[in-house]
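pinning this so it doesn't scroll away 📌
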Amino acid sequence: MFRLGWQVFRAHVADAVSVDRFRRAIRIGVLAAVVAAVVMVATEAAFRWVSTSTGLTVVVIVLLAVATGLLALSCCPIARPLDPAATINGRQVRPDTARTVRAAVKPYLRAKAPAVRPEDREAVLVDTALLRRGIVLDLSRWAPLLVAGLLAAVAGWTAGALPAYMLVYFALWSVATLDRVRELGRAERARRAAAALPPTDARPTPPTPPTPTPTATATATAIRTDRVSPPRTDRAPITAHDVRPAETRPGA
């Protein structure tokens, strides 16, 4: 599921993340990192707040500057607007992302998911599409934030300001992020299973009438022939009793 989730993330990241917004976020992050580095260098020269050697001081400042830039990047909006838009006059009219699914769809996101029922087909298709967009956006924001926290923890541990168990905390956070990738793979598995089902409102195809065989055609012809009255074979002359009187109308 992790491999499938990673493939889905790579295939749909451009659909959920705006390239222009992401480039702007990168510029903001670089600017924030440069400003943070300048401020930390100036304060270190004035107050000596990093109680380490010169080499480790440079490492700490670089790590904290990069962490600041990644933190600024993760705080910038990078979501790509939907087309058609999900808002009218600034008001949300339909959801564009989701972090969970309705109760009827949750069983299909388990590790051992059951077969998708036909009545749940539309719900699975709708909810998994929204969940996919939400997870892709979350991973795009959380990845820089996770790396920023890890770099800050390493810088604090190098400077002697943080204990080593803070690195374990960020390692557990990384595992939680990887679990979201696995959830993305399960959502894609459910979506494919639902897409393979026929629509519930599709009209059933009428059965094709069987093609009559030559034997059946001959039998039907013989039956119709048997039902026809045989022609009259007597040659007796027509009598007066056999002649119908002419119909007369009043006033004729």
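📌 and the second one:
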Amino acid sequence: MQHRSTPLARSLGAAALLSAAVAWGTASIQEYADGPRPDVLLPLALAAVFVVGWLPAARSAPLVKPLPTTAPPRDTVPGKRARAAGGERPARR
């Protein structure tokens, strides 16, 4: 079953995506530095923190309830010709 989306899960997921996009954008700017680049590492670390928060928020959301059935299941699919006995296809005209 699927989980219903909550505002907390949506905001944490959006923040993780935004942080990853910022890290990707800053990495595309060429900089000649000898050491690690904090302008890329900080958004990546934030994205990781947001994902760690998003996982339990998404998993603890309430489940989606299935819709009630209104009719019995059909034996055949509408618009398709029924197969002959034994699973053989009917002859084409």
